[in-house]
Design goal:
Elements (H helix, E strand, L loop, with lengths): L10 H13 L4 E4 L6 H8 L7 E9 L2 E8 L2 E3 L1 H8 L9 H8 L17 E4 L7 E5 L5 E6 H7 L3 E3 L2 E3 L30
Length: 194
């Protein structure tokens, strides 16, 4: 049994809601409580796993970040993302840096209400996905929006920048995307729940 959904709006949730309202984007806030897997998150949010959108913070350089929107069943294709951005190196910040540059804890990050309006790159599948679910600024909270409207409102650069997630041993999802510029190279484990 999962824990009950939170009932009080946190400051992060309020920032997200206010930013969504200001954007003019039609949205629905869904409070579903903690989830332990992509399948559980999709079920709780009333969407397919591919319609759960992960917001991943990526560092291009010192003090230079961007949001990458990735369908839940996919992982960043680092060589394609680097080529799109015209850079030879990208990394993922640790959870403290991600919190400092967005105002959100890992697992709650969304471009809406971020402390800085970082540029957004969205995987090309998101605009065609219909209803999608993005983080709502708090644990167990999400916002359901139209994928095409999401990309448009965020002025996202849309490109094919993901690969289908490669299940690990015993069918469990990989915790890290492979790639020569991933933070695995630096001895840290990547967490795509950002």
């Amino acid at each position: 049994m999962t824990a009950p959904a939170p009932t009080e709006e946190t400051p992060g949730e309020r920032r997200t809601r206010e930013a969504l309202e200001a954007s003019g984007l039609a949205f629905e806030i869904v409070r579903h409580g903690p989830v332990r897997s992509l399948a559980e998150a999709a079920r709780a949010r009333g969407v397919l796993p591919a319609q759960v959108v992960k917001t991943i913070v990526v560092r291009r350089g010192e003090g230079d970040f961007l949001f990458v929107l990735v369908p839940g069943d996919r992982t960043i294709a680092w060589p394609r993302l680097r080529a799109l951005l015209g850079v030879s190196r990208l990394s993922m910040p640790d959870k403290e840096v991600a919190r400092d540059v967005t105002g959100y804890e890992r697992g709650t990050i969304t471009p809406f209400g971020s402390l800085t309006a970082w540029p957004v790159v969205a995987d090309s599948r998101i605009p065609d996905a219909g209803r999608v679910s993005v983080g709502g600024g708090g644990h167990g909270v999400s916002a359901t929006v139209d994928g095409a409207d999401l990309a448009r409102v965020l002025d996202a650069r849309v490109a094919d920048i993901t690969d289908l997630d490669d299940p690990g041993p015993a069918g469990t999802a990989r915790a890290t995307p492979a790639g020569p510029t991933s933070t695995r190279e630096n001895g840290r484990t990547l967490d795509e729940s950002a």
